[in-house]
Q: What sequence folds into this?
């Protein structure tokens, strides 16, 4: 090495002035680009609500910026990782990007991951799967085909099913139609509908503006208001019962039924989100000069009612990203029900479970032992394998399935966003691991992607149960993901 440094010094001393200036410019540009890129990752993505209360509290303490409302243009959060996945040939006829990097070997990954997987913090039951995204080959597996309770990592399955069924550009409408004795507010199942001030795709205030204009154009300033929630069926309450992590499921709600000004994390929820939404809509109409007779009442819109106003949710791609980055339970359950509706199933827990399961099977994912019980992962009856989750992530990067790409762009970035914002502070995986977490009492999971030391994109899933120390389990999972990211493993 001393000889190399001496040679570099002599070259610099003898190099022409213009050549040295060029070297300085390139070096400065590289450093500037790295700083800008790091800042961009830090700013990207909203913060997580999570499952475990301590994790949710950390997320809720973050600033309320970062695109959680997805208003205006969206920019992919993982372009540097995803861009090389097109499989196109390079200038010299070889594969470019991640496919050109050498893949780790099974023996190399086994030597690296097996000791970490034996960490006592992971509890008595643990499984793992690592898949090469470029080839779809499983490079490492440990009990990978056994189904375990996945907690919030089941949101990956919900997202894949919804995107497959509806496409990333689908939007959910909330409408106002004419009724027999007035107007009817019809819920479409959009959990992002908001009554708050500010810019939003689905604003109850915007809907009230349009409704008031339409009524006044007809010479109507006095009407009755009904609300229709018939798009959903079955029990509204999740099996966990009334809970600060999820509102009763309704086709009509505002601000996820939150009783405070939060937009993520735990919060007291409305016992009747639809009635509250309709009551707020009536107040907004009154402010706009339309008098409402009495209190709004529940009912059904006529079969061929005329639509007089509508607002739409953000595109499904944005809903998926928000659901994964924020671990948003309300959005995840809505995505499951939208999948049911698109599949001709009832928009209930049972109908959604069947629709999601069918869609995952059609994607060719390993479904042995799998059971989908809800869309959010709050139900402990959910069962999936590490192999299913890792192959789902690899499928999301497949050029043949561009509709699934929001799954990858919605994954939290280690050390920067979502559930991983406050993790990986001292880990090499910071900024290179992107993963969805799952946490219930005694259950910890992590599934995502990492670019390894050779530049190869790998998908991984680690599922554990019987954990007694949640923080210790998280640290053990983070070490596993960091090892995947830092491994050349050949």
A:
């Amino acid at each position: 090495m001393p000889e190399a440094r001496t040679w570099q010094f002599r070259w610099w001393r003898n190099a022409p002035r213009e050549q040295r200036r060029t070297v300085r410019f390139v070096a400065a540009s590289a450093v500037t680009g790295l700083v800008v890129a790091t800042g961009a990752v830090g700013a990207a993505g909203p913060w997580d609500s999570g499952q475990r209360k301590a994790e949710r509290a950390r997320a809720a303490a973050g600033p309320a910026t970062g695109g959680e409302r997805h208003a205006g243009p969206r920019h992919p959060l993982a372009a540097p990782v995803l861009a090389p996945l097109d499989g196109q040939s390079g200038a010299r006829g070889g594969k470019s990007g991640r496919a050109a990097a050498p893949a780790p070997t099974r023996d190399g990954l086994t030597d690296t991951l097996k000791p970490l997987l034996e960490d006592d913090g992971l509890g008595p039951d643990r499984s793992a799967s690592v898949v090469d995204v470029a080839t779809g080959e499983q490079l490492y597996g440990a009990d990978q085909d056994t189904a375990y309770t996945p907690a919030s990592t089941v949101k990956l399955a919900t997202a894949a099913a919804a995107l497959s069924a509806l496409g990333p550009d689908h939007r959910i409408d909330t409408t106002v139609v004419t009724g027999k004795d007035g107007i009817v507010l019809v819920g479409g199942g959009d959990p992002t509908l908001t009554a708050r001030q500010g810019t939003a795709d689905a604003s109850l205030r915007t809907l009230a503006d349009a409704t008031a204009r339409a009524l006044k154009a007809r010479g109507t300033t006095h009407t009755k208001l009904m609300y229709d929630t018939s798009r959903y069926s079955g029990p509204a309450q999740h099996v966990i019962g009334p809970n600060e992590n999820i509102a009763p499921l309704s086709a009509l709600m505002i601000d996820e039924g939150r009783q405070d000004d939060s937009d993520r994390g735990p919060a007291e929820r409305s016992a009747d989100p639809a009635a509250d939404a309709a009551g707020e809509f009536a107040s907004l109409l009154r402010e706009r000069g339309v008098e409402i007779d009495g209190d709004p009442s529940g009912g059904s819109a006529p079969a061929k009612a005329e639509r007089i106003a509508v607002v739409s949710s953000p595109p499904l791609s944005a809903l998926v990203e928000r659901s994964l980055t924020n671990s948003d339970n309300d959005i995840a359950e809505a995505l499951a029900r939208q999948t049911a509706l698109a599949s001709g199933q009832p928009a209930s827990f049972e109908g959604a479970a069947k629709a999601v399961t069918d869609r995952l099977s059609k994607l060719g994912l390993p479904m042995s032992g799998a059971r989908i019980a809800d869309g959010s992962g709050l139900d402990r009856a959910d069962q999936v394998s590490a192999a299913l989750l890792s192959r789902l992530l690899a499928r999301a990067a497949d050029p043949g399935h561009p509709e699934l790409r929001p799954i990858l762009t919605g994954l939290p970035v280690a050390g920067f966003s979502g559930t991983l914002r406050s993790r990986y502070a001292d880990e090499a995986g910071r900024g290179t691991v992107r993963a969805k977490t799952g946490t219930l009492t005694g259950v910890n999971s992590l599934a995502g992607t990492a670019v390894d030391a050779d530049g190869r994109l790998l998908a991984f899933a680690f599922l554990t149960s019987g954990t007694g120390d949640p923080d210790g389990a998280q640290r053990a999972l983070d070490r596993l993901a960091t090892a995947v990211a830092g491994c050349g493993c050949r």
User: Anything to note?
Assistant: Confidence is low (pLDDT under 50) at residues 1-13, 17-98. The two ends are 26 Å apart (CA to CA). The chain has 14 helices and 13 strands. The longest strand covers residues 443-451.
